[in-house]
Amino acid sequence: MLQDSFGRRFYYLRLSVTDVCNFRCSYCLPDGYQGKPDEAFLSASELEAAVRGFAQMGTQKIRLTGGEPGLRSDLPEIIYRLNRIDGINNIAVTTNGYKLPQRIQHWADAGLNHLNVSIDSLDSSTFHEITGHDRLAEVLEGLAKARELGLTVKVNAVLMKGVNDDLAAVLTWLKQTPVTLRFIEVMETSDQAVFFRQYHVRGDDIRQSLLSQGWQPVLRDVAAGPAQEFWHPDYAGRIGLIMPYSQDFCATCNRLRISSLGKLHLCLFAEQGIDIRPYLQTGVPTSELVQAVSEYVQGKKATHALQSHNSGAMANLSQIGG
Ligand SMILES: Nc1nc2c(ncn2[C@@H]2O[C@H](COP(=O)(O)OP(=O)(O)OP(=O)(O)O)[C@@H](O)[C@H]2O)c(=O)[nH]1
Ligand SMILES: C[S@@+](CC[C@H](N)C(=O)[O-])C[C@H]1O[C@@H](n2cnc3c(N)ncnc32)[C@H](O)[C@@H]1O
Ligand code: SF4
Ligand code: SF4
C-alpha cells in the first residue's frame, strides 16, 4: 500500500483528462481558457495504464476532472476502461454540467457511479455572472437526470463573500433535494490574489450555524474527499464544507493527482510534478511505475503553504482539476 513519510495512505487518485474549459468562472478562468486546446493529453490507454499501476498500490477511487472533462469526446470510453480495473470500486466525474442532460446517460452506461457538479448559485442570474453561461436550468436538469439514473450526486459551490454565502437559500433547497451540497472556501492561486482577498470567507461560521441548528457530522470513509459533511433528520440533502485553511486539513490527505499531460503531483499546491507518461507506454512493466511512484511519494510535504500565500505552481485550479 502506497504510504508517505507521515503514514498517510493514498486511496484516491484524481485524473485531469484535459485542461481545456468552456466556462469562465470568476475564481478560476475569468478570461476563459488561454492555453492550446490541441495539447497531447493522456490517451484513454495511457490513463488505463496509470490506473492499473495505482490500483496495485491501493487506489480504490478515481475522479476524472479537468478543465472540463465533458469536453473529452472519449470520456465514456475512459470511464468504461477504468471501471473494469481490479481494485477500483468508484469512478467519479467533477463537471461544470455543460450539456449534462445529453451526456449523463452515456457516462452512466459506461459505469460512472458518482457525479459532482459545480453550481455556485441557485439563482440563475448569479450563476450566469459567475460562470459566464446562462445555463443553470440545463445543469439542474442534468443533475436530476443523474439522480434518476441512480448516481450519487454532489454539488460544489465556491463560497464567495456577499455573492453566494446565504445559507438559508441553500437549506431551503436541501430540504427536499437528496444531494450533498459542499461549500468550498475559495483558495488563493497566483492568478487570483486580488479576488481571494475580496471574496474569501471562512466556512467555520457556517459550520457553527449548522451545529446550532441540529446538523450532525457524518463519519468519513477512507477514500472520501476533504469535505466535512453534515446531515439533519428534517432534510433530504446533506451539506458539506471544504475548508483548506482550517487546522489539520492536510492530516487526512488520502489523494494524489495526475495532470492531463501526465505529471504526477503530490499536492494540489505542489511546485512541480514528475512526468510519468514514459511509464504508461505499451511494453513497459507496471512494476516500473509502481517503483517510481513509491519513491516519489516519500517527498510529499505535510501540508500546503496557503497560509503564507504560497500556491506553489498553481495559477488556477483548471490546470490540474482542483
Ligand atoms: N486544498 C485542497 N482542496 C481540495 C482537495 N481535494 C478537493 N479539493 C477542493 O474541493 C473541490 C471539489 O472537489 P471534487 O472534485 O468535487 O472532489 P471531492 O471533494 O474529493 O469529492 P468527493 O470524493 O465526492 O468527496 C476541488 O476542486 C478543490 O477545490 C485537496 O486535496 N486539497
Ligand atoms: C477546477 S474545476 C474542474 C472540473 C469542472 N470544470 C468543474 O468546474 O466542476 C473543479 C472544482 O474546483 C473548484 N475551484 C476552482 N477554482 C477554485 C478556487 N480558486 N478555490 C476553490 N475551489 C476552486 C471549482 O468550483 C470546481 O468545483
Ligand atoms: S471551475 Fe471548472 S468550469 Fe469553472 S472555469 Fe474552472 S475548470 Fe472551468
Ligand atoms: S492541500 Fe495538498 S496536502 Fe493538503 S489535502 Fe490538498 S493535496 Fe493534500
TrEMBL record:
Cofactor: [4Fe-4S] cluster
GO biological process: Mo-molybdopterin cofactor biosynthetic process
Radical SAM core domain: residues covered: 5-217
Residues that, per the record, bind GTP: 14, 63, 94, 154, 255-257
GO molecular function, one term: GTP binding
Annotated PANTHER family: GTP 3',8-CYCLASE, MOLYBDOPTERIN COFACTOR SYNTHESIS PROTEIN A
Name of the protein described by the UniProt record: GTP 3',8-cyclase
This protein's encoding gene: moaA
